[in-house]
Structures are given as C-alpha cells and as structure tokens.
Amino acid sequence: MADLSGGCARSDALGILLETDPPAKAQAVQALHARVRDGAARWNPPRVIDEPTGLPGRPARPELVEPRKLGRRSMQSEQGRAVLLHALAHIEFNAINLALDAVWRFAGMPAAFYDDWLKVAAEEAHHFSLLSARLAGFGHAYGDFPAHDGLWDMCERTRGDVLARMALVPRTLEARGLDASPPIRARLQQAGDHASAAILDVILRDEIGHVLIGNRWFRYLCEHAQLEPHETYLRLADEYRAPRLRGPFNFDARRAAGFDEAELAALAGLDPSTAQPDRGV
Ligand SMILES: [Fe+2]
Ligand SMILES: [Fe+2]
User: Where in this chain does the entry annotate a coiled-coil region (predicted)?
Assistant: First the structure.
C-alpha cells in the first residue's frame, strides 16, 4: 500500500483509497479507525493534499458494465441470490471508497467531520466483509460477476465542493439505499435466506447513521455559508444532475436519518402510494 502519511491520518485514508485489493482495503480501514480512536493517529485538517492518479484503487475484477447490461435476478435460486449479494458487495466496496474520499479530499473541516467519515468507512468495510463471507457460502467471491460502472461518478462530479458531496452522496445516494433495503430484505426472507436477510438488517441500521452524518454536515455547511438548506439541496441536485427520487420511500428510516418534516412531506408528494408520510414502508 502507498505510504503517503506524513503523520496525517487524512493522508493514510488516501493511501487506503488507493489500495486495490478489497479485503486488504477493508482491513486497513478498520485498523486506521482503531488508531484514530485510540489517539495513535491524528488529523491535520488544514493540510491540502494533491490528488494522485489511480483513484479509486480497485481490483481488475469485477468487470464494470453499464447498469442496463446487468440482468434481473430471481431470489428463488442460489445463483440469483449470489448475484444479488455480489451487487450489494459492490455497492459496499464503493461506499468504502466514497467515505475515504470525504476524509482525505476536503481540507479545513472540523476534526469531527473526519472522525465521522472514517467511522462510516469502517462500517462500510464491515458490510463488505459480511457480504463477502456470505458470498463465499454460495461458492463465490467478489469479482465473480459483472458490476455497475456508475457508483464513483457522483464522487467525481462533486470533487470540488464538499457541500455538493454531502447533499448528493449521503443525502441522495445512501438515502436511496434506505428505501431499497426493506423490499430486498423481504425477498430474501421470503426465499428462506435468513442469513442474508440478517445482513440487510445490520446494513440498514448502520446506513441510517451514515445518512444522519450526511445531514449533519450538510446543515453545518449551509449554516456557515448562510444558505437555506431546502433550496440549496434542490439547486445542487439540479446542477449536478442527481438521479430523480422515486418512491416508495422508507419514511421511518429517513426520519431517523435526520430529514425534516418539510423534506418528508415533499417526498410524500412524489410518491402517490404513500399519502401519509408517517406510515413508512
Ligand atoms: Fe454500507
Ligand atoms: Fe453507507
């Protein structure tokens, strides 16, 4: 792994982002998280770090393809569930990279910002490890199936603006995961795959925390720049061509993740199937 540290845990995070081997990356994230927590590694918030080539570090496989080339999977067959678990592992692998990128890239934030995003990276590494272990139970490993090529895209588009990053990665992409999780979990449970369904429970619980962190820093940045959060979100979603939000929404999880009642009511307006914003999904 590249040693870029210079005594700064943000540079360590960049070194881990460059790591191409997924299990090594997951393990290194958790080790750095423990070192920062124990005071053995420290943040240097003002340091501006130059972007190296080769971001993000990722393995030669999976083959990355356009989303429309990925087939739909039946939950009834083992193969179908392995393909689903692989797709989820790919999302988690990308989520490790997205969280590490927030740590190294954006200088001048409070130390708590870096603590939060390193904690997110460590939890994404845990999710990736859980899914990899479950995939192994089906005789497969991460890399065995093709995967979505677009997950790093929003990270690149928002590389120059921490406010846009907070608006569009945790508050948009990760928040969509809150909506997507319960139906996937239900399909796994229905197929009798309780072990995989239990992993989805862990992921949903932690992801509420990630979106909450995104909301906290989005509001913090809005406050500092004296921007109105609702209008600012709509402006950024438009400017950066964020994916359009579509229901059904997981209102309970979104409320727990810090979206306010005005935001939930606006979502309810997009989703005719949920007239009552507090009904949940
Ligand atoms: Fe995750
Ligand atoms: Fe996450």
Answer: none
